[in-house]
Amino acid sequence: MQLIKVISTQNVERMKRKARKLKREKAITHTQALDEVAKAARFNHWHEVVQANAHFIPAETAFAEGYVLAFDTKDGMDIDTSDGVLIEDHLLEMLTQHQLFEIYSNFIDEEDEKRRPYKEIYPDDELRENFVDESTFMFFRLKDATDKSLKDVLILAREYSFWPPYYIWIKGELFDTHNLPVEDDSGNTIGVRF
Fold first, then answer.
1. pLDDT band, residue 17 (cuts 50/70/90)
2. The whole model's pTM is what?
3. pLDDT at position 182, please?
4. What does the alpha-carbon distance between residue 58 and residue 60 come to, in Å, rounded to a whole number?
5. pLDDT, tens digit, 9 for 90 and up, residues 105-128
C-alpha cells in the first residue's frame, strides 16, 4: 500500500509565508526557500507539497462551495456511488472534525444526574478519545455543485439511503439532520431514529 500525503491549502499558504521570510533572511532563491520549507515539513521538495495539496482540493471545494453529507457508517456502507453523483471522500473527515467535536462535546450525558454536557464531565483528552471511538461517519460530497436547498439535498440523499445523513454541510454551513424523520415522496413519516 502506497502512502499518499495530503496537505490543506491553508497549510500550504503558511508554508509559502515561511518561505518568503526564509528567502529574505537567508538571501536565497524563492525555489530554494520553498524546497527548504517543504523538507522541514517532511516532504522531499516543494513539488511534492503541491501534489499533496491537489489531493485535498476537491474536499476543500465541496466543503466551502458545495455539499457534504456525513452518514452513519452502517448506512454509508450501503451507498452505491457507481453513478458518480455521490463521491466518498475520506478527507472530508479532516475538514469537519472540529465542528463535529464541538457538537459531541455539548451532548448531554443521559446518565449524569445533573444532565451536564460531556465537556463538563470528561477531561479533554478522554473527551477526544471518546469522540474518536464514537464518531463513525462516512463522508460523501456531491459532484454537482449547482444551487440546492437543504430539502433538495435530503431528497437526493433518499435515493441512496433509507436513513438521512446525520449532518449536511451546504457551502460550509452545517445542518444537523440526525433527528429528522424519514419521509416518503408525499411527505409522510415512514421512519424515526431513536
1. very high
2. 0.87
3. 87
4. 6
5. 999 999 999 999 999 999 999 999
